[in-house]
Write a structure and sequence with these properties.
The protein is mainly alpha-helical. It has a domain of 72 residues. The chain contains 3 helices and 2 strands, in the order H-E-E-H-H. The chain has a two-stranded antiparallel sheet with strand order 1-2. The protein is elongated and about 100 Å long.
């Protein structure tokens, strides 16, 4: 059922993306230098859909990096909590081993 729902959502998205790429095949100039727009050495001729897809991918990567950095404190807290749990488990095992030892005999002469 989960796979069916995934394909039910992904197929229409793929159709829209393919239609977008087919409709926007015209070649556009992409200038990499914002101050020298007339310099031919800094200009690339590429289809419009390629520019749009590249910008979308760059946005996804930038968003992922920003999310990764913003969640750093949560990952650090998780590491600290796991270390505390491991320390407490080791201490509990040590206490269990001590309680399983026979009680010392108090011999007074």
């Amino acid at each position: 059922m989960k796979t069916f729902l995934k394909w039910l959502i992904l197929i229409p998205i793929a159709v829209v993306i393919i239609a977008f790429a087919i409709v926007n095949r015209q070649v556009v100039p992409v200038v990499l230098d914002p101050f020298g727009a007339e310099a031919a050495s800094q200009r690339v001729e590429t289809p419009l859909f390629f520019v749009m897809f590249a910008c979308a991918m760059l946005g996804v990567v930038a968003g992922g990096v920003a999310t990764w950095f913003s969640q750093g404190r949560h990952r650090r807290a998780l590491r600290d909590a796991r270390a505390d749990v491991e320390h407490l488990r080791a201490e509990a095992d040590r206490m269990r081993n001590l309680s399983s030892l026979p009680a010392p005999v108090n011999r007074t002469l």
